[in-house]
Design a protein that fits this description.
123 residues, globular, mainly beta, 11 strands, 4-stranded antiparallel beta sheet
Amino acid sequence: VQLQASGGGLVQPGGSLRLSCDASGITLDYYAIGWFRQAPGKEREGVSSISSSSGKTMYPDSVKGRFTISRGNAKNTVYLQMNYLKPEDPAVYYCATGHFAEATLDEAPYAYWGQGTQVTVSS
């Protein structure tokens, strides 16, 4: 199983980015997906998750209303749309999945992780 996160970059405060997560060796449609981020000196935190069949989503308060997770038309792609980016959002963003169906921001169940993509917010 391989996950490839992409779409990071430099954006001004208030700007937007869309991250993509492409998978091989697993059908993402069958499992929950999570996006996590880790800033230097900080613990990794979950920023979104989506369930498999129900499409239920979860977000922490820090990104609720600004970030949106969605599944692509292709079964093995998931997106994270990030709007109104703030100076506290810069981090390496990772996508992850595992053999479970329900969304969770707890990283423990996630068995497979992408390599991460850097998001920088600066004017």
